[in-house]
Amino acid sequence: MNHELLKGDFDYELPPELIAQHPSPERDHSRLLCYDRAQKTLEHRSFFELPAFLRPGDALVVNETRVLPARLRGQKEGSCGKIEFLLLKRLNGDDWEVILKPGKRATPGARFAFGEGRLRAEILGVLEGGARAVRFFYGGVFEERLEELGETPLPPYIGEALRDRDRYQTVYARRNGSAAAPTAGLHFTPELLAQIRAMGVKIVPVLLHVGLGTFRPVKEERVADHRMHEEYYELSAEAAELLNAAKKAGGRIIAVGTTSVRVLESAAGEGGLLHAGSGYTKIFITPGYRFRAVDALITNFHLPKSTLLMLVSAFMGREEALAMYAEAVRERYRFFSFGDACLLL
After folding, report:
1. What share of the chain is helix, strand, coil (3-state, %, to 5)?
2. pLDDT for 158-198, tens place per residue?
3. Residues 211 and 79 in one domain
4. Which domain, by its residues, includes 136?
5. Beta bridge partners of 75
6. pLDDT of residue 2
7. How many domains does the chain have?
8. In this predicted structure, what is the pLDDT of residue 306?
9. DSSP 236-297
């Protein structure tokens, strides 16, 4: 039961050198650890071998969010004081929720400039958790200013600069809005997706804009006391129809990444039927949760004691998940955002 779960139940030993600092040279040449939940068996494969585990009639669900170049470096107007903005989400129009470093300079009314004034910002107010509401001023199109002046934010455990920022985007990223990549999708190439389509597998896009809350540590010892972060999602009528039809015909719904799981399980009714819609989800999936929509999952290896490891543990069993992670450590798999993947059938 949830009230008995403790944060320490999801801990494991990870040698720091196994935390991947850069992507693999070729997207689909990362490793793939395959776990069959019925047989309780493990197989070591390469990601390009994924089609061997798929069947005609299956539906592969991908999150088409795109990571914003959401880190801006500038200075306070009228001074030499440097400032760093990290855009979290659009509140409305030109107003955004932003984390600032250093935060003490950011009192309401303070103004900042980026790119010699091509982009300016004013603090409107302080939000919950210390973030700020900020209004931007610019000429032209905001997204173009951001592409020109912003940097791709990388997770805190990656210390190396990213040479090619497209490697922190999936090849099917379409819609701007994430502060972090849905990293299970980084392993796909256009050629691999074409091969999967040709098998008779439907590739179905959904949307969830990933927030930085995905990296927020669980602070409370009792898992049930953790306040889950909120993320915007959409499931289109077309996607819901395709997935319901696949399910009805005996196909499996295979989620690419925990973000796709969050969309599908947020949109699923009691009988597993998916309902089109959009909004914000705070779904918190921990052992004891009964999955309504997802039949299989492709995901990377997650941080100890994280909500994402709790989701994986809910899907395959906590002891099984920790045993699989111990095997991945023994076999020197690469961990976290730029690391290898696992397939849970």
Report:
1. 30, 30, 40
2. 888 788 889 999 999 999 999 899 999 999 999 999 999 99
3. no
4. 71-149
5. 82, 113
6. 42
7. 2
8. 95
9. -HHHHHHHHHHHHTT--EEEESHHHHHHHHHHB-TTS-B--EEEEE-----TT---SS-SEE
